[in-house]
Amino acid sequence: MGEVQPRWLRPEDAARYVGRRVDELPRLVRAGKLPQPSRHFGPRSPRYDRLELDQIMGSRKVENDADAIFREEMERAWR
After folding, report:
1. Does the pTM exceed 0.70?
2. Phi, psi dihedrals of residue 71, rounded to the nearest 5°
3. Which sign does the torsion angle of CA 25, 29, 34, 35 carry?
4. pLDDT digits (tens, 9 = 90+) for 16-74
């Protein structure tokens, strides 16, 4: 069985998950690029919903499998 990922991420974990620094998160939230963190664990314990992060990050189509990379490189070579 695979490892279970937690749904509610601390800011440090959320930043690592989306590839940003922790101090960037509030600005990204204000800009609408990340969802608001939940405070259901308390006012001093913000948590980011991994599913919401996946949804907002998934809105950008990223194809990085080996076949796609190969096709892209072949197209570049034939230009």
Report:
1. no
2. -60, -45
3. positive
4. 999 999 999 999 999 999 999 999 999 999 999 999 999 998 854 444 566 666 667 77
Tokens for 43? 């006012």
CB burial of residue 12 (10 Å; 0-12, 13-18, 19+): exposed
What helix, strand, coil percent values describe the chain, rounded to 5?
Answer: 50, 10, 45
Q: How far is CA 68 from the centre of its chain?
A: 21
- Write down how long the chain is: 79
Task: Please say whether the beta carbons of 34 and 28 come within 8 A.
Answer: yes
Helix (H, G, I), strand (E, B) or coil at 10: coil
